[in-house]
Design goal:
The protein has an eight-stranded mixed beta sheet with strand order 1-2-4-11-8-7-6-9, covered by helices on one side. It is α+β, with helices and mostly antiparallel strands. It has four helices and twelve strands.
Amino acid sequence: MLEQLLANVEIFPLMGVPLNEKNTMKMDFSPSNHKLIEIDLSSTALFDRYVFGLLNSSRKQYGIGGYFEHRAIYQRSKVFATAVEDFRDIHLGVDIWTKAGHPVYTPIDGAIHSFQDNVGFGNYGPTIIMEHKLGNKLLYSLYGHLQRVDLANLTVGKKFKKGDLLCHVGEFPENGDWPAHLHFQLMWDMMGNVGDFPGVCSHREQEKYRLICPNPHFIIGY
């Protein structure tokens, strides 16, 4: 459905430049990446060193991945802690790992739905949610792990054209205490949420969220 609605829509590159094999590498944070076992993920500094060590060694500016990825990195935070059968470790968006301060642009026309600073270790930190009209459908886009200053001049309903500067990739600890990256996620339904939306779900909830959270790669383009 999303691909059809976007068929005739011009999309501006989220990071200002197209992501491709020359500047971007795919990153794996699933249990199959055994290197993660060797890292103390509770230390953001060590986690950051691992992420940017990969980028530097590959000579890439961006790392990307994560849509419906089963992840092995959420044990680092109590934000995701629930009963074992409901532990949330299925990632619902796409992460773009790059240096803090990198600008993020509005990919398609939209308006601010809501925003807030989701504070806490392992949380989103500063977060913006936009609302986009695609024909008769509403699509929501979430931008997480931002700079706190990005929220300063926002108002609900403020309009942005595609290509407008929206925000910046935040640095830890103000970005929720993660290595610098943008969490980008799409939703058809906000489910009553304001300024926040689940970025991960449990295995039991996968099919529910697959219907709500379409693949962001249709907008990212890579």
